[in-house]
Every structure is written in C-alpha cells, then in structure tokens.
Write a structure and sequence with these properties.
Blueprint (H helix, E strand, L loop, with lengths): L2 H16 L6 H19 L10 H21 L1 H14 L4 E5 L2 H12 L4 E4 L3 H5 L2 H7 L3 E4 L2 H9 L16 H12 L7 H11 L1 H6 L3 E4 L3 E3 L5 E5 L3 H7 L3 E7 L3 E2 L2 H15 L5 E5 L4 E2 L7 E2 L6 E7 L3 H6 L15 H4 L2 H6 L4 E2 L2 E2 L1 H11 L1 H6 L10 H5 L6 H14 L5 H13 L5
Parallel strand pairs: 1-12, 2-3, 2-4, 4-7, 5-8, 7-12
Antiparallel strand pairs: 5-6, 6-9, 10-11, 13-14
The chain binds iron/sulfur cluster (2 copies).
The site of one iron/sulfur cluster (SF4) has 15 residues, from helix 16, helix 19 and helix 20.
Length: 434
C-alpha cells in the first residue's frame, strides 16, 4: 500500500471521529440528513399527496423511462444534433455546443461580458462544468436565489450539502442570529418569519435588478427544443423571466426525445423527492411580441435572449468507449440513491465530493479528478449494499461502479490499511479472519 493510501485513510478517519462531537459540522449535517433521508424514503409508500404512492407512480412509468434513456444513449449524437438544430432555427435560442468544460467556461465568460453579478438557481451542472470555479476566479459575484443556497451563502457554508435542501442543517435560531449579525434585523426564530424577511427584502431585487441569470435544465426536449425547469419557490420563474439574458448550462445528457418525456422526468423528480413542485416552466423561445404590425420583436417582458450552452466534455467519449460509468448519463436526478444509501446515512457529508453528497457525486469527482479524489471523498465507505441500484428508476448500477472504483483504487495502492490487512491474510492464510 502506498503512503498516500494511509494518509487519505487517516484524513477520513479523523472526519469520522468528529461525528461523535455533536457540535462538529459533520455531526450537525449527519443527524439532520439521517432523518431527512429516512423520512423521504418512508414517504415513498404513503398516499398523502396523491391517490397513488410515489413508488406506484415510478413503477407505472419505469419501463418507459428505461427505454427512453437507453434510446438516448444509443443515439446520443443524433439527439444532440436534432436538439441544437431546433433550438437555433425554431426557438431562436443562441446555442453553443462545448466539446470540453474549458470551452464551456470560456463561452460563459464571453456571454457574461462586462457584468460583474450573476443570479443563479441551484445548478449542479454549473459546478460539474466548472462554471462556479471560473466565476469565483474572475471575482464575479454569485447571487444564489434558492433559499437553501441563500442560507449557505449567509453562513459561508463550504461543506458538501444536499442539493435538494442545501440549508437543511441550520436551525431557525442559528438563522435568525446570523440575519441579525449581517443585517441588524431581529426576527422570531420561526420559518415563516425568515421566509417573509427574504420575500420582503430579496424579491424586489429579483424582480428589478437581474441582468443575467444562470440555470440548468431538468430536461430538454430534442423534438421542439423546449427547456423544462421544475421548482417550488418561484425563484426560477423570476430568474428566467425578469432578466435580460437567461443562460442555460447543461450537460448533453439532459436531452430527452420529446416534451412529454421532459415533463415525465420533471414529474419523476417531484414524486420521488416528495416535494410540492409548484411550478413547471417550459421555455421555448425568448420573450417576444408581434403585436405591432405583425413584426416580431424580441424581449417584451421576459428574457430578451436565451443562451444555451450544451456541454459534452466526457459524455460522448464515455458512450463510444463503453466506459464503466457511461450509464450515469441515463440519470434523471431523482435523488433516490441518496435517500436510501447506507453509507450516506451513516457518514452524511463525509461521503461526498465537492459536487455534492453520495455515490453519484463521488463518481463525478472520479471522472473529473481521478481515483485519488474519489478515495478522498470516502469511496471505501460504500457498503456495497446496492440500495442505490434497487431504488433507481432507470436501474443505474451505482453499486457496481463504486466496486469498479474500489478495484482501481486497490490496484493503485489506495485501499484502506484494514482492508489491505485482510487481503494479506487471504493470500497468506487463505482465511481473512485468522
Ligand atoms: S452500494 Fe454504496 S453507494 Fe449504493 S446505496 Fe449502498 S452504500 Fe450507497
Ligand atoms: S442514479 Fe438513479 S436513483 Fe440516483 S439520482 Fe440518478 S436516476 Fe435517481
């Protein structure tokens, strides 16, 4: 085993030891995440929002979803071409196809121009594509708009969090104390008061001051080029309408054959996460009017320009070269694998990468930054339980991908010392327990 393997093992062990300290950042997140994950997973079988349970809803559409995502992977280049064509010609979007993340970052900065502030809704894609790092490097102010992300900014929270509810770890008392410290405003430690504070102070800014906004897409229809976005707060609706320029950054895997597939993906996300998705936006053109003498003028009340940056980077190569992780391109971002993951429940945001918590984000880190990064993210904490595979609506076998990563890590001498000791015993004694 390499010294590096031992070093990483000690680093992770030190973080795990901090779980015993109830004031540590890891135990605070871990405790709340355990409850949230358990609650989400139990509510999968409850009939409290609709007549059918989330599990029944998913099962009803599962074979359709699997066939749709398999078809996408088999014809990935054709779908990308078709989608770009319709977005440009029919929808009047400005479309870029970036072969690499670096190219996407360059295009993004060009589109940003002289602007020094960007408003965004949570977008894992922007992190994945490296847009956030580039914005920070160029001293562009990033204004989060999803309340959870706003809270993470308020606390300057730098640890991996849960993308669906990134501020879940803060208590009402902590939030009002922070608001008092930052804005000198005294609030009762109640969720309604906090929400009302942001509605009164931040909403006018979102309605009036946004010049450039950034979102990703829940799905993009190749048939008509529509961008589908689902949300419950209304921030995405504001960011995509009350702006001059709306920039969409998305990996090409967000493309689905048609608009019904795109809405299905959004509904699957809503039903699995059991959130009340208050709004679904279908964006098929920049704002426009033809009310004066039939002449089409862009930019009436909504965005004057919609810019779409579709990013390939590793994706088409993964399909063509049949990489073991290619199936994550089928992912519909439903988060089931996070809720049911035994490692995630036990280790919270220790089992995570800079892209977010859980196995899929560790695999993302591997793709971008290699095996050592994945080991540092807690690769070997994966128990191999396969709950992720069993609950995934498109049957992605994350468990097997994690096993493949463990094999590679072991070959590279990065496996944890206790496992190395077992290996020695197996080879020497033919019995790991002697
Ligand atoms: S196999 Fe690993 S990643 Fe999948 S649910 Fe189990 S612990 Fe989590
Ligand atoms: S891997 Fe499967 S379970 Fe996990 S988010 Fe993607 S689609 Fe959902």
């Amino acid at each position: 085993m390499s010294g590096k393997g031992k070093e990483i093992y000690e680093e992770i062990k030190a973080k795990i030891d901090l779980l015993k300290d109830e004031n540590s950042v890891y135990s605070k997140f871990g405790e709340i995440w355990k409850l949230a994950g358990l609650g989400k997973y139990r509510s999968f079988d409850l009939r409290y929002l609709y007549e059918d349970t989330s599990r029944e809803f998913v099962n009803k559409y599962k074979s359709q979803l699997i066939a749709m995502r398999n078809d996408f992977l088999e014809n990935i280049e054709g779908y990308v071409k078709k989608c770009i064509n319709v977005m440009e010609k029919t929808n009047k979007f400005k479309v870029y196809y970036a072969k690499t993340n670096e190219e996407a970052q360059e295009i993004f900065m060009k589109e940003l121009g002289e602007n020094k502030v960007i408003y965004k809704s949570k977008s894992l894609e922007a992190k994945d594509i490296g847009i956030i790092d580039v914005l920070k490097k160029n001293n562009i102010e990033i204004k989060e708009t999803d309340l959870g992300d706003v809270l993470c900014q308020l606390f300057d929270y730098k640890y991996p969090s849960f993308t669906l509810a990134p501020g879940i770890q803060f208590t009402e008392e902590e939030i009002v104390a922070k608001i008092k410290e930052k804005y000198g405003v005294e609030l009762k430690p109640e969720a309604e008061e906090i929400v009302n504070f942001y509605r009164k102070t931040y909403r006018p800014e979102l309605l009036n001051d946004v010049k450039i906004s950034l979102t990703s897409a829940n799905a993009i229809s190749a048939h008509d080029g529509s961008i589908v976005l689902i949300e419950n707060e209304g921030n995405i609706s504001l960011l995509t309408r009350a702006t001059e320029k709306h920039i969409v950054v998305a990996g090409i895997q967000k493309i689905v054959p048609d608009i019904l597939d795109a809405v299905l993906v959004a509904k699957i996300q809503e039903r699995i996460t059991n959130v009340d998705g208050a709004y679904i936006s279908l964006i098929s053109a920049p704002s426009n009017t033809s009310d004066i003498k039939g002449k089409r003028v862009m930019g009436m009340y909504g965005a004057k320009e919609v810019v779409v940056i579709l990013v390939d980077d590793w994706r088409i190569a993964a399909v063509k070269e049949n990489k073991f992780y290619k199936d994550i391109l089928k992912c519909v971002s439903c988060k089931s694998c996070d809720f049911v993951c035994t490692a995630s429940r036990a280790f919270g945001n220790i089992y995570a990468s800079k892209y977010g918590i859980g196995a899929i984000n560790i695999i993302r880190d591997y793709i971008h930054n290699g095996i050592e990064a994945a080991v540092k993210d807690g690769l070997f904490l994966c128990t191999g339980c396969e709950n992720c595979k069993n609950w995934c609506p498109v049957e992605i076998n994350l468990g097997e991908m994690m096993r493949e990563l463990k094999r590679e890590a072991t070959r590279r001498g990065l496996c944890p010392p206790p496992l190395e000791a077992y290996k020695e015993k197996i080879f020497k004694e033919k019995d790991p327990f002697k």
